[in-house]
Amino acid sequence: MNKLILTAAAIASFHVFAQPAFAQDAQAGEKKAAMCIGCHGIPGYQASFPEVHKVPMISGQNAKYIVASLEAYKKGDRKHPTMDAIAQSLSEQDMADLAAFYEGHGKAPQNAGKPAQPSPEVAELLKKANCASCHGEDYNKPIDPSYPKIAGQHADYLYVALKAYHTSNNRLIGRNNAIMAGMAKLYTLSELKKISKYLASLDGDLRTVPESRFR
Fold first, then answer.
1. Which site from 131, 153, 162, 186 is most exposed, i.e. has the minimal number of CB atoms within 10 Å?
2. Domain 24-109+116-214 belongs to what architecture?
3. What three-state secondary structure class fits 54?
């Protein structure tokens, strides 16, 4: 039964994220990234809403996932005042170009070593929602590029993002993806924090690449 549920969820998620294709232009995306680098181009930069946390690393992230995220902010399925305003200003072509730029931005060879093993407690937590079934065994090679790479992402950001799926009927914060909400709500906030800390300890492709003006 669990396998059937997960298969159905994966199929549903694919249709949710499937969007008309736009030709991606990474060079055009680089020229459009000025609004992004003030947060995502500064190592360790922290946001202060809804709580203090590091902004996510997006250099090296899957382009298809970046587009899906921006579309979710634009539609209101994700809520964050700053990101909402930015997404509203972007066309579908802008999103495609920015995504192409960040996917290859500062790209480094994938780590070939074995991922750090979780504690028995965290291993059981990860099995509970079968996180690896979408995000990949090493959490750096998702089964579909519409899913994010999460290995090595900032722990505090992962925690805030996962916690957002516990929030509903709030006009300023929260995430409305039904599949992820169902998964996140299997856990207490304390358990989400433990999962986030483990995922952040893994090697992955995600990084912050400073722009020259901020070095």
1. 186
2. Orthogonal Bundle (1.10)
3. strand
